[in-house]
Design goal:
Number of strands: 8
Helix content: 10-25%
Number of domains: 1
Structural class: alpha+beta
Order of helices and strands: EHEHEEEHEHEE
Number of helices: 4
Shape: globular
Largest sheet: 8 strands, antiparallel
Mean pLDDT: 81
Length: 156
């Protein structure tokens, strides 16, 4: 009898979860045949327990990442490995919020060349934090696992 893994909803993932397991996989992309699959939805993730590194073709993955803000501060978060360099929409980098003045980046579409003034007005992210460099922790993932956020785009 197979044991059901720890299941977490996307919004419930925390830094401590990535301390325990550096990679999480979406159950709806990797667990179709499992007896507990019907207990999951599109936002349910479980720890990746197979070999590392993972790659973008392994499913919808979140891998532990480090973010470096313009002020030099380091923050924890996660990203999804991508196939193409610069595909921030696929990577969806996320920062865990530990400082109240730093907004969690969220599911924005990021594009370069947006002015700092416009990005600050729209996102609430102080200009002194942009640009933001990010990278998966070493040895965890292959594919495109690093990038740079220059600004934010959102519909008005």
């Amino acid at each position: 009898m197979e044991i059901k893994p720890e299941l977490k909803q996307f919004g419930d993932l925390r830094s401590a979860d990535f301390d325990r397991y550096p990679v999480w996989i979406a159950c709806h992309t990797g667990d179709f045949g499992e007896p507990w699959f019907d207990e999951t939805d599109e936002e349910t993730f479980r720890p990746w327990t197979s070999a590392l590194p993972v790659g973008p073709s392994d499913g919808m993955l979140f891998v532990r990442a480090i973010f470096v803000l313009r002020d030099g501060s380091h923050h924890e978060g996660f990203l999804t490995p991508a196939f193409k360099v610069g595909d921030l929409g696929a990577m969806q980098p996320q920062i865990f919020n530990r400082r109240p003045e730093i907004q969690i980046l969220g599911w924005y579409v990021w594009v370069p060349a947006i002015s700092e003034r416009a990005s600050t007005r729209r996102s609430g992210m102080p200009r002194c934090y942009l640009p933001i460099q990010f990278s998966a922790v070493p040895g965890v993932a292959s594919g495109v696992v690093s990038g740079r956020v220059e600004g934010f785009y959102c519909k008005s």
